[in-house]
Amino acid sequence: MMDCTDCGDDIGMLIECHGWGRPASASIYWAALDTENRTTGPLSFEVAGEVFRRTATTVHFGQLGEVPRMDLAPSDPLLVAIQKASHMRVTFADSAVRIGLGGFASAYERFDHACPWRADAESFGDREALSNEAAR
Description:
Blueprint: E1 14-16, E2 24-27, E3 40-47, E4 50-60, E5 66-72, H1 77-84, E6 87-92, E7 95-100, H2 104-114, H3 124-135
Antiparallel strand pairs: 1-2, 2-5, 3-4, 3-6, 4-5, 6-7
């Protein structure tokens, strides 16, 4: 979702939708560990001078190695911060990377509209259902 003007290998973090009322997952590709051992540990995001701490567990992702992944709720304050910032610094294990956030706000807006992760009337699913009922 970030710095994806040409995509290719330039996706530092990917947010995946998992359905109605369920948190999304965020995989931070650029913070991958060169190992085959699954790792759980602290993950920190420094955004505009503010630090957000989470716990991540890695998943094996081919040649990248072990990629830290965490759950992400629609109400997570990290999402508000990264929509306004130009970059963030991500630290996992002994690895720290800087990820540009150009284009994140518009990509996130499309994601948030398309993913039915909000279990309230603001979610895509409810908006779609309400508009379908109103059309009848």
